[in-house]
Amino acid sequence: MSIASLSQLPAWTGTETYIADEGLQSIVNVAVGLGRPLLVKGEPGTGKTLLAYAVAEGLKLPLLTWHIKSTTRAQDGLYLYDTVARLNDSRFGDHDVRDIAQYIKLGPLGEAFERSQKGERVVLLIDEIDKADIEFPNDLLHELDAMRFTIAETGKEIRAAQRPIVLITSNAEKELPDAFLRRCVFHYIEFPDESQLARICRVHHPDVDEKLLAAALRKFVQIRAVQDLRKKPTTSELIDWLSSLRLSGIDAAKLEATLPFAGVLLKQENDAQRVLRAASPRR
Amino acid sequence: MFEGFHSVLRLAGLKVGVGEWLTVTQALDSGLIGPSLKEFYSTSRALVCRDEADYDKFDQAFAAYFQGAALPTPVSQMLQSWLDDPLAKPPLSAEELAALPHYDLEQLRKLYEERLKEQTERHDGGSHWIGTGGTSPFGQGGQHPTGMRVGDGASGRGQAIATARARRFRTYRDDIVLDTRQLAVAVRRLRRLERKSRRLELDMPETIRKTAANGGDIEIVERPERRNQARVVLMLDAGGSMDAHVRSVQAFFSAMKQGGGLREVEAYYFHNCVYADVYTDMALLKKKSLAELTRSVPPNTNLVMVGDAWMAPRELFSPYGSIEYGTSDEVPGVDRLRELAAAFPKRVWLNPIPENYWGESTIRAVGALVPMFPMTVEGMVAAVQVLLGRGDKIAKRAAKRPWPSPQDVF
Asked: In sequence order, what are the beta bridge partners of A165?
């Protein structure tokens, strides 16, 4: 493991729009320094994906993203050999079809390795790894460990000179295999508390009326505390809600009594009813 | 640095191997972790924990090491091994139960700690020491009316009022992590791939054939993708006696729903036994008649029932046997089960109660109609084999059970 590579990068301290506490900052720096993937879990809307963007921005490195779907295979991340294009070119194209290399398209992981081979360090985001098949993370183990692979068709080896900074997000829809977890640095993003929420809101709404913000936050925290919500409102929904409130010019006093634009916060009919029931005075 | 911390972490129940610990020291040595304790806290936690469920254990270990807080008293490994393998005992009568001393929670805790200090060997079926299957207030699988359950094994009479589970044992949460994956892998074997999808894929051999027939002009042939066509109807017991098994049922349910990649998983609920109606919600409010259900399911659907099948005999064998308010069915539950059995040639029953309690009359009767398996990874694998029609081995296994075979019951 090349610890030496760390010194070339400044420590990551968050960005103007992404607020990271000290703990998260040092975890990111340790993961970068050790060259291990950082696995990030947390409730939806706690900024798991945004963290990768913020790390790339903060370290001034290019970001490659690999969004995982239920059909994604590990091989897709390395490279694809476009046989149909080659077949087509053999009949109509003006390409030299003897050169297979031009039909090899690198996937996000492959590209990250290749760019690192050329001395460029990148940040790779593997988003929502739990969406894929349960064996998917195991299939990635070898490549993530060895940081190289061979393109079978051309015999060319892609070998990362430096470990790319890999961030992996998971919504915990499926459990990840132990062998995979052992190789990752793990971080669970907790839902921000009220003061952190206020800071986040001020970043997105710098000129918000403090009274309105306080009232909105109070309401928001109350709603999240309601038992058994199917989908608790998240930070991004709070920010949207705040925009709606400001656009409509509702003042803080009115917000105390009612819940305007409830649909922005609560996306499920049952949840809306549950919140109304919880808010109405007990008989 | 911090040598002792590694062992404290392991004492607190975190599975920190040498590899993980080396990574922590490596990060410390190379200056990746700054000199503040706060930084050491968050980074070592990130390197040592693999799940947010581990955070609590980590916090306890951290507090114990750096602030001298006490770790929770661990039950010794040996004690757990005595408890792991309970010996079944015949149920006590009501009078015998009433004769045993009753304790409140505080008394129990004190007694437990005192006895833990004195005990030096394994005990089964006694009335004093911590052991299995007896009438002592401590242990598991026992029958003391207000006793305390010690260890992770199977519960006996379901009457334990407190559970003392020391932190050096795997938590339930860890079990689920392991089980959901393994269960999902087991469920996968139900797969029945057929070309019935609306999504198309390239049919390579046919494309080559057509292209050759075309004199070399490429002609693309597509065909529907292979998709899993396996369907499962799940029926879950939502009765009170199942509360003790909520976690394992949840793990099983999520494995079925998402892990298996099945075409369709319909879930229904019942209370203790199936009667004229089943319910589409866990609160047993929305009814669906059994007749409608059996009529509407496509052939080849697998039926998987989950429940303890443990009830008062009249709930199963008598007309109007349901104890659920507002449900009355003149047909006894056992006949309703026969209807189900007739409608689903492929059916299994998964029972969270350990197999050594399956001698109960209702469990035996249900097991005779629906092949019954313990709700463990092993049981699930066997159940899937039966659903796939490869049940020979399983039959041999069932014959080894210490009570009469299904044929003798009816």
From this structure: A123
A83 contacts A103 by C-beta, under 8 angstroms? yes
ipTM above 0.85, yes or no: no
Distance of alpha carbon B365 from alpha carbon B316, whole angstroms: 9
List the structure tokens of B263. 């075409």
The backbone torsions φ and ψ at residue B178, rounded to the nearest 5 degrees and listed phi first, read: -65, -45
Q: How far apart are CA B137 and CA B99, in angstroms?
A: 13
**pTM for the structure as a whole:** 0.57
Interchain pair A182, B50: CB under 8 A: yes
Q: Does residue B53 sit in helix, strand or coil?
A: helix
For range A178-185, the mean pLDDT = 87
Contacts of A100 (CB under 8 A, 6+ apart): A81, A86, A153, A154
Round to whole Å and give the CA distance between A174 and B184.
Answer: 10
CA angle A186, A190, A192 (to 5 degrees): 145
Q: How many CA atoms lie within 13 A of B238 on its CB side?
A: 15
Which positions in chain A touch B35 (Cβ < 8 Å)? none
For the record, the structure tokens of B245 come out as: 């098994």
Q: How far is B56 from chain A (nearest CA, A)?
A: 12
Q: Write the burial class of residue B120 (CB in 10 Å: 0-12 exposed, 13-18 middle, 19+ buried).
A: exposed
Amino acid at B222: E
A–B interface: beta-carbon pairs under 8 A: 81
Q: Calculate Rg over the CA atoms of chain A.
A: 23
Distance CA B8, CA B14 (A): 9
CATH architecture of the domain with residue range A3-78+107-189:
3-Layer(aba) Sandwich (3.40)
- Using CA atoms in the order B146, B148, B153, B158, what is the torsion angle rounded to 10 degrees? 20
**pLDDT digit string (tens) for B282-339?**
777 788 888 888 888 888 888 999 888 888 888 888 888 777 666 777 888 888 889 8
Question: Could you give the 3-state DSSP secondary structure of residue B380?
Answer: helix
Q: Which two tokens stand for residue B341?
A: 């059995």
Distance separating alpha carbons of residues B383 and B377, to the nearest angstrom: 10
